[in-house]
């Protein structure tokens, strides 16, 4: 066994159990944060890809007239196609409101793109329906429940006999319409007139990587009204997991930084306590390299053990952190990743190595003869500090408290830095909570500046427009017509906006609003994907209609990760609006939807705007838990550092008690030192947290397509209280951890040990 390894094992045997447990815990927390973030990012993809393969690889979904779709089935790009599937559109009651639904007949189980049954059975009668799995979970529906569907003003009640996953679009509530399945007799009962039905064709491509190219080509075919390629659908399904996982992993950096400062401070204190032992080892022949290697070895053994524990913990909790997929597909199984283990060990190993080697080198290079003295020589620095504090006219307890902090500047700086990281983590978590709350309460930030939707299908457009303009409950409205459009060989979502442009209250981020034909307003994702800027002109194909548009501005949009282009509806003459988007004067979205149903009559399909605060809640709660863990670790480190400093100065405390210091003054001394460290941490951590929050939040909002600069800072009250709160917490920690020592008899304290 090498001398270095013997030193490491000997150090472990002589190490305090509490100190060893603290190092292991810090390493485990850091590893768990990184592994959980990486796992959340990677766990959704395999689940989705498995369903994609089980569904026969639905690479392309083409909407249009049945005859036109039938003519496409022999296209050279297709390896296989499913049957032409008829469907109708309607409105289904869900919870307290309603959502748009696409109701289709069930293709054969072996067909390309066939939905996957998750519970129950397929419909066998006209009054039975299989429900969209994600929407059913969200609404708490179970097999056997009654659901109410409205198609063209004809309400029908059906029995839910099962739930299924369909990959022709992403899952509710991120995408609509939800997908329902009935047997042919059921569809005939819901939409007896052929004009009320649409059709779709699902194709498997010979080259799945060419989905965008095939979509761009087929989207301009006569009779085709829309094309949806699988890569776009997959990205929409996984966007929440990717953003949430990246944020978790990024937030894990705070844990790693806190771990670095905690371990460095602990190592410095431990090496100070072991300075005579180190000098003796050097005196009997151990080299500096062996001493440093032994000290590093014992820390790495603890750290790697903690990293393995953290890897296991992160792997186990990752399935419970899914956002967006769990309702549709259920919790994913535990995925053991050797790569994640290597990453965790590497991260923790690097952090612990840097945190241990620096103080170890300093300790090993001290002169052996000086260290082996009974009392190390005192430097002039503490005397200078004492004189400076005395000139400031501070109270004796304050002078001694600050002096104890400044006497060990290195350890004090590391302790304050760890606490500053915790303060920054709290600021970041509070900022994310504020940002997510704002997105929920201000729908324009996510590209939905309306309160209710009136479906355009089966609606008299002129009558609806006149009724909306006359209603006192309506503050404004505009129309929307969606088309899959192409630019070059890539497809994207294009929207024709009608009505009064001033009432389409999108959140404009740059440029000018959409006012006239020939202008376009785009999402941030569109700018990045196609490499264009405000002021550029783009030539697109909206269905069969070629359009030349000048981009006049970009706005906040999250649908299709911001890859959306809007233009005036006048450029699609004769196109029927898909929907009327209505803003209420004062009422809630649900109250506005009720008023619209009463005014427009039973033939109108109306639904309130949907939001998903529960899913966002998982995101914010996870960040809050992470911030709490960082804060707990940093406070524990602060308490340990203050207690260690007090024990080092136990004889000085005894002398002070002998000359008249009271227990209260002794506690005040420790509280002053803690308050000073807390104040320094707050002053540094607050601006650092604001900068870190801006960077991380911009990454999140950019990733979901809304663009940077959409952050909502924490309340000014919270920010104003951060620095004084850090000082108060430091003072309390200092008083609490030294309470027992302060009450020790002076005779015991002054003994030299």
UniProtKB/TrEMBL annotation:
Subcellular location field: Cell membrane
Transmembrane helix found in the keyword field: yes
Keyword Repressor: no
Regions that span the bilayer: 242-273, 294-318, 338-358, 413-433, 616-643, 674-696, 716-737
Membrane topology note: Multi-pass membrane protein
UniProt xrefs under Pfam families: FtsX, MacB_PCD
Keywords per UniProt: Cell membrane, Membrane, Transmembrane, Transmembrane helix
Domain of life according to the entry: Bacteria
ABC3 transporter permease C-terminal domain mapped to chain residues: 251-367, 625-743
MacB-like periplasmic core domain boundaries: 412-562
InterPro entries: ABC3_permease_C (IPR003838), MacB_PCD (IPR025857), Macrolide_Exporter_MacB (IPR050250)
PANTHER family membership: ABC TRANSPORTER PERMEASE YTRF, MEMBRANE COMPONENT OF TRANSPORTER-RELATED
Family label: Belongs to the ABC-4 integral membrane protein family.
Name assigned to this protein: FtsX-like permease family protein
Biological source species: Phytohabitans kaempferiae
């Amino acid at each position: 066994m090498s001398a270095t390894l013997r030193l490491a094992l000997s150090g472990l045997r002589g190490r305090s159990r509490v100190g060893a447990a603290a190092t292991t815990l810090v390493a485990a927390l850091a590893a768990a944060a990184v592994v959980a973030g990486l796992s959340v990012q990677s766990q959704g993809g395999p689940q989705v890809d498995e369903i994609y393969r089980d569904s026969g690889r639905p690479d392309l979904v083409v909407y249009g007239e049945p005859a036109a779709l039938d003519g496409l089935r022999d296209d050279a790009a297709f390896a296989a196609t499913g049957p032409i599937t008829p469907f109708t559109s309607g409105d289904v009651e869900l919870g307290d409101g309603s959502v748009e639904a696409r109701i289709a007949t069930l293709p054969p189980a072996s067909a390309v793109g066939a939905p996957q049954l998750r519970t129950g059975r397929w419909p066998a009668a006209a009054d039975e329906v299989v429900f969209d799995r994600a929407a059913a979970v969200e609404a708490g529906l179970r097999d056997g429940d009654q659901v109410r569907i409205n198609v063209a003003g004809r309400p029908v009640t059906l029995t839910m006999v099962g739930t299924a996953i369909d990959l022709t679009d992403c899952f509710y509530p991120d995408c609509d319409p939800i997908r329902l399945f009935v047997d042919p007799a059921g569809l005939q009962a819901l939409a007896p007139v052929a004009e009320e039905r649409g059709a779709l064709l699902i194709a498997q491509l010979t080259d799945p990587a060419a989905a965008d190219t095939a979509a761009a080509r087929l989207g301009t075919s006569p009779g085709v009204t829309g094309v949806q390629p699988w890569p776009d659908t997959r990205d929409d399904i996984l966007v929440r997991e990717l953003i949430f996982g990246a944020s978790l992993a990024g937030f894990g950096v705070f844990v790693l930084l806190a771990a670095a400062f905690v371990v460095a401070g602990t190592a410095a204190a431990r090496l100070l306590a072991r300075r005579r032992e180190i000098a003796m080892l050097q005196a009997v022949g151990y080299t500096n390299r062996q001493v440093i290697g032994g000290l590093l070895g014992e820390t790495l053994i603890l750290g790697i053990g903690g990293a393995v524990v953290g890897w296991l913990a992160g792997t186990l909790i990752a399935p419970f952190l899914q956002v967006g997929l769990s309702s549709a597909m259920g919790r994913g199984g535990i995925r053991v990743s050797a790569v994640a283990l290597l990453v965790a060990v590497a991260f923790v190993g690097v952090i612990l190595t840097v945190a241990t080697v620096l103080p170890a080198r300093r300790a090993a290079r001290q002169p052996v003869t000086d260290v082996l003295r009974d009392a190390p020589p005192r430097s002039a620095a503490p005397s200078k500090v004492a004189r400076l504090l005395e000139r400031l006219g501070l109270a004796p307890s304050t002078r001694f408290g600050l002096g104890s902090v400044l006497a060990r500047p290195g350890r004090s700086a590391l302790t304050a830095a760890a606490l500053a990281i915790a303060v920054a983590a709290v600021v970041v978590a509070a900022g994310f909570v504020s940002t997510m709350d704002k997105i929920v309460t201000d729908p324009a930030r996510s590209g939905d500046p309306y309160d209710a939707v009136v479906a355009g299908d089966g609606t008299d457009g002129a009558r609806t427009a006149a009724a909306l303009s006359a209603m006192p409950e309506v503050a404004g409205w505009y129309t929307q017509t969606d088309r899959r459009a192409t630019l070059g060989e890539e497809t994207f979502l294009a929207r024709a906006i009608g009505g009064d442009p001033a009432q389409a209250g999108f959140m404009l981020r740059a440029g000018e609003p959409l006012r006239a034909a020939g202008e376009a307003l785009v999402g941030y994702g569109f700018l990045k994907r196609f490499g264009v800027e405000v002021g550029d002109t783009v030539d697109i194909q909206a269905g069969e209609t070629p359009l030349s548009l000048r981009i006049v501005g970009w706005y906040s949009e999250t649908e299709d990760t911001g890859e959306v282009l809007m233009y005036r509806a006048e450029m699609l003459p004769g196109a029927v609006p898909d929907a009327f988007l209505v803003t209420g004067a004062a009422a809630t979205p649900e109250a506005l939807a009720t008023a619209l149903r009463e005014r427009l009559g039973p033939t109108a399909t109306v639904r309130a705007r949907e939001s998903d605060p529960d899913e966002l809640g998982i995101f914010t709660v996870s960040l809050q838990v992470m911030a709490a863990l960082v804060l707990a670790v940093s406070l524990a480190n602060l308490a340990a550092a203050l207690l260690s400093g007090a024990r080092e100065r136990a004889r000085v405390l005894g002398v002070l008690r002998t000359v008249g210091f009271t227990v209260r003054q002794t506690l005040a001394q420790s509280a002053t030192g803690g308050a000073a460290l807390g104040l320094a941490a707050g002053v540094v951590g607050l601006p650092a947290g604001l900068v870190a929050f801006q960077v991380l939040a911009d990454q999140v909002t950019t990733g979901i397509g809304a663009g940077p600069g959409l952050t909502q800072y924490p309340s000014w009250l919270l920010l104003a209280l951060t620095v004084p709160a850090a000082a108060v917490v430091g003072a309390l920690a200092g008083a609490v951890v030294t309470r027992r020592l302060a009450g020790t008899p002076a005779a015991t304290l002054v003994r030299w040990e």
